[in-house]
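Saturday, quiet lab. Running sequence design on the structure tokens for the scaffold JK sent over.
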């Protein structure tokens, strides 16, 4: 029996990978002839739609991480980083470390759901100096940075330096950028009352977007409503503006002509003094995909209508790392959790069909709607064919995403965080995660300052 056992290996513990594992567990969870395996760098599913609320201090850090072992109880789990995928030998190799040896895992069927990483479009200085909003660590680090800037600005007497402390620039007008900007403004306004010298008009949140509108893909009226409400709250939204450099003190931008975006001759160079730039402007597939033997286009795995990877039957790619063209728009599907989960369900069905020798089904995406929160109990939503804005859209966003949290304890914790936020101010404690400098190290730093 053991020789005939089929092994399905899922790479990635994000929305796509976890949903695929859950669907396969329903079919094969008690089947001794099928073994389910998952590999992920982290042993938790990060609920990324709520990352901005962690950065603003509304939700506690651990409340948006769901341990994979509690969700996929019938799937063997490996925490590790993927070194290599050999589709000819049907082997996946994990990196070894000082604490554990390298492991090779054989598979009969493979699901690649490795997601994506932040794309800086080749700007090394931006990559070095910008903050990102992709991981739980990013959210915690950003929150600490914002509070640190308030602390520095409160006692700073140089007006130019003080202004750079209180200017916060968000690059990218998509879901992540707009929701981060809204939550950031909420945090700043809540925290300001504890800093007597900082006035409301001193705080600047600036959103830079290269396109001519925010929230591309959304209903135009709703996107305009979101922009109008955010501007009312003091958020500066600059459209058709691209970042060209950021050295940690000043971000340089290029104003783009509507028809000649890439032409430097038709652009206007500008700059903003800031110590904090948050980059949410794009994603790119992980390096494991780029260096694999699979055929790729724009760094993504090429898949057919059944989400199978070209030239390798039984290997599926889903989520951000898969290139699937929307037949209606003739453009790649956007990297959203909703699409990742929809692809995961189709891939699971087709895996079941392969094992049972039945007919596979093509992946056809039907949007269930779109939602975004823009701060201060306001949001926009396209839901059940209706366009909704304001408080009701914000309420729908909360209910929908709360329902998607799979474990009852995490659902309860997030709900309680939201209730507490209604009655109490946000905590402004800065949690230093780095090693505390010794007095000797402080003296060395002071001596370096004196030399300069």
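Result came back. Writing it out in full:
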């Amino acid at each position: 029996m053991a020789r005939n056992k089929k092994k399905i290996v899922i790479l990635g513990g994000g929305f796509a990978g976890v949903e695929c594992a859950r669907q396969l567990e329903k079919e094969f969870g008690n089947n001794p002839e099928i073994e389910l395996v998952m590999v992920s760098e982290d042993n938790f599913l990060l609920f990324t739609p709520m990352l901005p609320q962690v950065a603003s201090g509304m939700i506690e850090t651990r409340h948006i991480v769901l341990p994979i072992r509690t969700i996929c109880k019938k799937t063997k789990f490996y925490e590790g980083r993927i070194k290599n995928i050999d589709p000819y030998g049907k082997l996946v190799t994990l990196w070894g470390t000082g604490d554990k040896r390298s492991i090779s895992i054989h598979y009969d069927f493979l699901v690649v759901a490795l997601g994506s990483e932040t794309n800086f479009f080749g700007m090394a200085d931006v990559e070095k100096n910008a903050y990102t909003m992709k991981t739980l660590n990013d959210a915690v680090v950003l929150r600490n940075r914002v509070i640190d800037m308030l602390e520095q600005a409160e006692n700073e007497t140089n007006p130019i330096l003080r202004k750079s402390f209180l200017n916060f620039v968000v690059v990218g007008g998509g879901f992540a950028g707009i929701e981060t900007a809204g939550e950031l403004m909420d945090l700043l306004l809540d925290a300001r009352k504890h800093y007597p010298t900082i006035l409301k008009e001193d705080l600047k949140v600036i959103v830079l977007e290269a396109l001519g509108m925010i929230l591309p893909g959304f209903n135009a009226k709703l996107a305009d409503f979101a922009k109008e409400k955010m501007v009312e709250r003091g958020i500066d939204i600059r459209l058709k503006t691209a970042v060209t450099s950021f050295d940690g003190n000043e971000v340089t931008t290029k104003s783009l002509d509507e028809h000649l975006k890439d032409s430097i001759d038709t652009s206007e160079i500008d700059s903003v003094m800031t110590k904090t730039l948050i980059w949410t402007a794009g994603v790119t597939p992980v390096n494991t995909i780029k260096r694999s033997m699979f055929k790729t286009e724009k760094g993504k795995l090429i898949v057919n209508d059944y989400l199978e990877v070209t030239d390798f039957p039984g290997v599926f790619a889903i989520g951000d790392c898969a290139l699937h063209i929307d037949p209606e728009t003739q453009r790649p599907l956007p990297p959203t959790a909703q699409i990742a989960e929809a692809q995961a369900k189709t891939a699971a069905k087709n895996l079941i069909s392969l094992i049972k020798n039945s007919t596979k089904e093509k992946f056809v995406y039907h949007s269930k709607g779109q939602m975004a929160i823009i701060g201060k109990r306001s949001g926009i939503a396209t839901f059940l064919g209706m366009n909704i804005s304001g408080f009701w859209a914000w309420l729908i966003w909360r209910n929908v995403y709360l329902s998607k949290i799979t474990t009852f304890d995490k659902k309860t914790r997030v709900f309680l965080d939201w209730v507490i936020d209604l009655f109490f101010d946000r905590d402004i404690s800065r949690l230093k995660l780095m090693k505390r400098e010794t007095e000797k190290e402080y003296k060395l730093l002071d001596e370096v300052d004196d030399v300069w």
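Notes for JK: The chain has 13 helices and 26 strands. The first strand starts at residue 6 and ends at 11. Ask whether to fix the surface positions before the next round.
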